[in-house]
């Protein structure tokens, strides 16, 4: 009897040890899959030895996964192999005291042992270590780093054998094995990460919008950021310095110079004008003090435009269209606004915000608000038209110049993320034209209308 009890106790302890080993390999697998490698690299740079070891493991992800799977497989086989002789038979012998035969007792004892072992294995050997590793990936990865490297070194031959065998099977079906996980993120991935972080409150709304704009910046061209010709004041080469000083006293300190052929020929700055007047040449023309114009095409990318402006002494570039005509101006401030949003200085302190929420799903907007800012305000993509502003989209949708008081309906594409949830919505914008200037909308009211798409509805 004592021998039977000792065998039973040893068997239970051995099975628990096997389950613990299985849990170790499960935790190893999920910890190194979920850990933030950038965070490990930062810790390693500060001299954290555990982080250095963990980072070394993550550089061999495929090998580590193969090793973890080998450990999980072996522990599972050992568990099934020892359950019956160590626990099943001992438990069967004890059940004889309840009137069962030895064979029946062993059979019942084995069933009980496997049933209990399966439950404990699933909870303590699979689910608990998995959830623990995901919830505490960095501490777990650092804690297991030394033992993982030792395991990968000692059993490296067996791991390599199984890993290479699996890779041969993959190549047999013309699939090239991947030896490490791609942890990089595409631009679209980053947009989704930022949007999700904004919705959960992990990052402030303003910061998330700035991050969105930074990602969009390389994709934008000069036409997107420039001040259009209709909003630009300029002077002619024949304008006198006295006339120019009067203009500068009321408005800007820099002006583009445009000739009769509608071509930008220079830029004039206030310090140059004042120096010339102080020298007694107040009757001279702008042509005598203007600097050579920095000319940019509308289709140039914003990073290239920024590079040109940094090399220029003007910090104000004249923009031309594809026909060579003057299209507008671009300044460093305009480029900064592409990242931080609207900038207000002492000259426009009373200017209203370009996008003003009025109520749920209703916004008041200026007509020259860019499409990407409209999308950020409403939270959904607009149809992909070759236009820059909400006013341009109204004209494109209407096919003509809209009238004041007219409402234009713009259908929105279905949000692709809703296909996963199965809850689809049909959305459209009702854009009311509130004010017209120079024949185009300068102020609009935008209302977002959402209706669920019923099953079977197109």
Automatic annotation (TrEMBL):
Its main location: membrane. Residues 226-285, 289-346 form the CBS domain. GO terms for cellular component: plasma membrane. PROSITE patterns: CBS, CNNM. Keywords: CBS domain, Cell membrane, Membrane, Repeat, Transmembrane, Transmembrane helix. It holds the Pfam family CorC_HlyC. It is found in: Cell membrane. Residues 4-207 form the CNNM transmembrane domain. It is a multi-pass membrane protein. SUPFAM superfamilies: CBS-domain pair (SSF54631), FAD-binding/transporter-associated domain-like (SSF56176). The chain crosses the membrane at residues 6-27, 62-82, 102-123, 144-162. GO terms for molecular function: flavin adenine dinucleotide binding. PANTHER family: UPF0053 PROTEIN RV1842C, UPF0053 PROTEIN YRKA. This is Magnesium and cobalt efflux protein CorC.
């Amino acid at each position: 009897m004592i021998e039977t009890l000792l065998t039973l106790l040893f068997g239970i302890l051995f099975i628990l040890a096997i389950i613990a080993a299985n849990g170790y390999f499960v935790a190893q697998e999920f910890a190194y899959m979920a850990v933030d490698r950038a965070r490990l690299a930062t810790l390693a740079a500060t001299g954290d030895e555990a982080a250095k070891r963990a980072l070394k493991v993550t550089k061999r992800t495929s090998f580590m996964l193969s090793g973890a799977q080998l450990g999980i497989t072996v522990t599972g086989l050992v568990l099934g192999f020892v359950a019956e002789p160590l626990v099943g038979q001992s438990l069967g012998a004890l059940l004889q005291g309840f009137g069962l035969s030895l064979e029946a007792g062993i059979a019942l004892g084995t069933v009980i042992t496997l049933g209990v072992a399966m439950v404990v294995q699933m909870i303590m050997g699979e689910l608990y270590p998995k959830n623990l590793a995901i919830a505490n990936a960095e501490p777990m990865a650092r804690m297991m780093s030394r033992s993982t490297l030792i395991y990968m070194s000692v059993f490296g031959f067996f791991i390599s054998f199984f890993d290479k065998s699996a890779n041969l099977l993959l190549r047999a079906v013309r699939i090239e094995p991947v030896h490490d996980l791609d942890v990089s993120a595409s631009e679209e991935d980053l947009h989704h990460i930022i949007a999700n972080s904004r919705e959960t409150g992990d990052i402030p709304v303003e910061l998330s919008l700035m991050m969105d704009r930074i990602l969009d910046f390389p994709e934008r061209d000069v036409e997107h950021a420039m001040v259009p010709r209709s909003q630009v004041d300029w002077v002619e080469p024949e304008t006198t310095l006295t006339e120019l000083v009067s203009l500068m006293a009321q408005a800007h300190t820099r002006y583009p110079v445009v000739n009769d052929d509608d071509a930008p020929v220079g830029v004039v700055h206030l310090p140059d004008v004042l120096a010339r007047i102080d020298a007694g040449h107040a009757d001279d023309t702008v042509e005598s003090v203007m600097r050579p114009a920095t000319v940019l095409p509308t289709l140039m990318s914003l990073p290239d435009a920024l590079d040109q402006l940094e090399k220029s002494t003007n910090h104000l570039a004249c923009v031309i269209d594809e026909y060579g005509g003057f299209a507008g101006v671009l300044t460093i401030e305009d480029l900064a606004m592409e990242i931080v949003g609207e900038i207000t200085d002492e000259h426009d302190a009373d200017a209203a915000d370009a996008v003003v929420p009025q109520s749920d799903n209703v916004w008041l907007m200026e007509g020259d608000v860019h499409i990407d800012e409209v999308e950020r305000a409403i939270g959904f993509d607009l149809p992909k038209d070759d236009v820059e502003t909400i006013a341009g989209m109204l004209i494109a949708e209407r096919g003509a110049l809209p009238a004041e008081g007219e409402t234009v309906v713009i259908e929105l594409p279905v949000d692709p993320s809703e296909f996963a949830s199965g809850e689809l919505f049909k959305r459209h914008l009702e854009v009311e034209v509130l004010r017209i200037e120079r024949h185009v909308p300068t102020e609009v009211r935008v209302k977002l209308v959402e209706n669920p798409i019923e099953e079977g509805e197109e």
